[in-house]
Amino acid sequence: MFVSNNACLVPTSFWLTGIPGLESLHIWLSIPFSSMYLVAVVGNMTILVVIKLERSLHQPMYFFLCMLAVIDLVLSTSTMPKLLAIFWFGARHIDLDACLAQMFFIHCFATVESGIFLAMAFDRYVAICDPLRHISVLTRAVVRRLGLAALLRGVLYIGPLPLMIRLRLPLYQTRIIAHSYCEHMALVTLACGDTTVNNLYGMGIGFLVLILDSLAITASYVMIFRAITGLATPEARLKTLGTCSSHICAILVFYIPIAVSSLTHRFGHHVPPHIHILLANFYLLVPPILNPVVYAVRTKQIRERLLHILKAGAQPK
Length: 317
Fold this sequence. Notes:
Strand content: under 5%
Radius of gyration: 22 Å
Number of strands: 5
Oligomer: single chain
Distance between the termini: 61 Å
Order of helices and strands: EEEHHEHHHHEHHHHH
């Protein structure tokens, strides 16, 4: 690490504080966080195994669910092992390259997950509004292309962020990041010099991903609800709406924590720092935990296959 003439640093590494203000409670905080991470890993791995084994689940909606499970595993694993290392061993040091890589994975796969939710909304729209063409429109090749498009969009949107930090922000006021992981704005706010471009780019990506994706998903569900209200009987309306309920719950689980965390970060100036950091961690942990629960509870085929596997495993050999 070098020190410039204007007292700004040229760091090769940073120090993560974990949960600032709660350092004395880190060992106790590790218990719920490690438990939640374990639940997220087991739950999403279970979803992947169940869908792979059950051929009746080899349909577009469940292929997208597999993509969500993989994304949630990446998101939680990008942050939780390092956070637990801070809690358990005080391992706060992180190299600059590792910090930028962690930042890329977090923001990239959050963007990819939003894209998958948009693809799932398109799948539900076709299945309900044009059911006769659902099989021909949402083929396996189309599902793969939609998943690849969501991944490429995430890489293209987020790829410039670490490069912009590397090239435009070499100097920093301090090596200490008051956060539990390397987040884009947490780094930008520490930088010396003009950060306008980085701020504008970050806000632009947030608008393109969160605002436009949520508007597109909302528009698709407006058309879906119109189609549902046109069905002949209440039983048919409830049955059709039930096919969307898991997706709606998963969308709310994903977007609400992000919205709460973003609003608290931007407008909650009197909120203690540890609340900001806890909310930021929860929005990376809550969807990976709840998505498998939502789909396992509300999807009959997944629930039945899971119970069958559990019963088979419990039988004496």
